[in-house]
Design a protein that fits this description.
Blueprint lengths: L1 E6 L2 E6 H8 L2 E7 L2 H7 L3 E7 L6 H20 L12 E4 L2 E2 L15 E5 L6
Parallel strand pairs: 3-7
Antiparallel strand pairs: 1-2, 3-4, 5-6, 5-7
Length: 123
């Protein structure tokens, strides 16, 4: 399925999903939850929307999720004494470790997927 957009007298043809991103006024980020966070949220994945043009960082996404899911989420993600994100959590942006980008300050783009990875144990 395709859509057409006329701009400066020229007609452009786009797949529908590309067209939607061009005309959308929001930035969408998918967040994937695992183990404890999956239990706390009751979801495997959630899509958050932010106003386009607003800087959306991992920190901002976590703050938004803490607002949505309350005390249980907040206590799992943030250190109660320092208020900082607990060091055992890892964050992947589109499969790439955020620690190799800008950590919690990593800016997310429309369509990005943020995975919040808990510690992995084994033996």
């Amino acid at each position: 399925m395709v859509s057409f957009l006329q701009w400066n007298g020229e007609l452009f043809k786009f797949p529908v999903h590309v067209f939607y991103r061009l005309v959308s006024r929001t930035l969408k980020v998918s967040v994937r939850f695992f183990t404890t966070l999956r239990e706390l949220t009751g979801k495997r994945e959630e899509t958050l929307e932010f106003p386009k043009g607003e800087a959306v960082t991992i920190e901002k996404v976590l703050a938004t999720l803490a607002e949505c899911y309350g005390k249980g989420f907040t206590e799992y993600v943030y250190d109660g004494k320092t208020g900082k994100v607990k060091g055992f959590l890892q964050f992947l942006v589109n499969g790439r470790s955020a620690s190799t980008i800008k950590g919690l300050k990593t800016e997310l783009a429309d369509g990005d997927t943020l995975a919040i990875i808990p510690p992995v144990g084994g033996g």
